[in-house]
Amino acid sequence: MKILVTARLSDDVVSLIEQDHEVEMNRENRPMERGALLAGIAGKQGVLCSISDRVDEEFLALAPGLKIIANFGVGFDHIDIAAASRRGIPVTYTPGVLTDATADIAFALILAVSRRVVEGDRMTREGGFRFWAPFHFLGRQVSGKTLGIVGMGRIGEAVARRAAGFDMKIVYHGRNRLDPADEQRLRARYLPLHELLREADFVSLHVPLTTETRHLIGLEELRLMKPSAVLINTSRGPVVNEAALVEALQEGRIGGAGLDVYENEPELAAGLSGLENVVLLPHVGSATIETRTKMALMAVENLLVGLRGEQPPNCLNWSSVMGVKGR
Ligand code: 8YV
């Protein structure tokens, strides 16, 4: 069958697909332009895609024979799952394998913002380290502070486990409350969102992007946070109203922010890059060799099983697909 791979994968991984199928792969180290993507999907039976590819009605209409959409990533807000389901196409993702890497980046941002790691590095390189003094370059203590986790799924839990090592108090908010045993294991206390925002020294976002979570954190929510509090976002940019965040940071309503994702990625909101109290990363939550290798292997396995017409291991819409096929 004919497969489109929209992002460059290692030769070893691609060869797993090539054993039985014909692969057209984007060999550039950058996403496909929309026109090339639409031209590429025509006549394909399978696609291995990433966050940079919008999989919508227009895309799906060009590939009537599509049997599987295998996403390279855990977030799937760029894929119209309902449209794929209506056409009986399974959509898969890569949960679990990127949990630790993403939780590590959330923690890296917590530490980097609080202890002014990036600012200090820049100043030192520029020759600005000329003396030691008791009040020189002071940051905020992380240990012992209160961490508010918004979205206590796999990644939220992994952040909570890391926070325990820093003796942090953990409060959380999510669609569902954890079982009491899990709350005890994670030493996490459930709070309504507004109370969490008032109590936390750090607020870390770990929700998927949905219609409910778009702009979950806006002006009103930022106003509830402590003036010293730090917002961390490693989930999806549009969960935060970025213009409101810039305003809150400029006015000192909150203490700082650590961001790995942006509302109009890869663009930054006006004023964001000029702020000293932010650390900005280029969406690298899962970017370790180990994790990206596992994600690629998982996506390929999902793809190959889907091409056989069987249930892929990490399928998001199998019951809908079965419903359509059973009709
Ligand atoms: C990926 C991510 O790098 O998995 C996700 O949802 O945001 C990142 O780990 C990205 O999605 C690549 O498609």
TrEMBL record:
Superkingdom of source: Bacteria
The UniProt record lists the keyword rRNA-binding: no
Transmembrane segments: none
Signal peptide: none
D-isomer specific 2-hydroxyacid dehydrogenase NAD-binding domain location: 107-285
Record's keyword terms, sorted: Oxidoreductase
InterPro entries: D-isomer_2-hydroxyacid_DH, D-isomer_2_OHA_DH_cat_dom, D-isomer_DH_CS, D-isomer_DH_NAD-bd, NAD(P)-bd_dom_sf
Domain D-isomer specific 2-hydroxyacid dehydrogenase catalytic: 3-317
Molecular function GO labels: glyoxylate reductase (NADPH) activity; hydroxypyruvate reductase [NAD(P)H] activity; NAD binding
A cellular-component GO term for this protein: cytosol
Similarity remark: Belongs to the D-isomer specific 2-hydroxyacid dehydrogenase family.
Protein name (record): D-isomer specific 2-hydroxyacid dehydrogenase, NAD-binding
Provenance organism: Syntrophobacter fumaroxidans (strain DSM 10017 / MPOB)
